[in-house]
Design goal:
The chain is of the alpha/beta class and 133 residues long. Helix content is 44%, strand content 20%. The protein contains six helices and six strands, in the order βααβαβαβαβαβ. Helix 5 (87-99) packs parallel to helix 6. The longest helix has 14 residues, at 114-127. The radius of gyration is 14 Å and the shape is globular.
């Protein structure tokens, strides 16, 4: 089985707390992780910030950098999205990918309000994708 083409949201090169770098990246870059997942894109607050993180963490040069959630959602190669942003950014950074039918893992909780959690679940159901946290 080919590795799942994966995007990470919130892998910051200079965050005070680096949850994505500490919790997800070590596994994704391990031999076991690389056999299952291929990082193909990174979304940060700006394209420049994404490019800086790609360089900081030594991700492949072909990793695409995004600063806009809609642009990431439009990337047809991305199959799976790992969202490791602050809670208040979960919904706005993930909803476009959920609408686009991508499977999305969001660090707990799914969103900062119950209506947003409900919308993420409803949109995922309608798009035929999965949104879990």
């Amino acid at each position: 089985m080919a590795p799942i083409k994966t995007a990470i949201i919130g892998l910051s090169a200079n965050a005070i707390t680096g949850w994505a770098a500490a919790a997800h990246l070590p596994y994704l870059l391990s031999a076991e992780g690389r056999a299952k997942f291929q990082i193909v894109a990174l979304l940060n607050s700006s394209e420049k910030a994404a490019k800086e993180a790609i360089a900081t963490y030594g991700l492949p040069a072909e990793t695409r950098a995004y600063g806009d959630p809609e642009a990431l959602a439009a990337d047809a190669e991305v199959e799976f999205v790992v969202n490791s942003t602050r809670v208040d950014n979960h919904y706005p950074s993930a909803i476009a990918s959920v609408r686009a039918g991508k499977d999305v893992f969001i660090e707990w909780p799914l969103a900062d309000t119950l209506p947003r959690v409900t919308e993420l679940a409803d949109v995922a159901r309608a798009a035929g994708s999965r949104c879990v946290g």
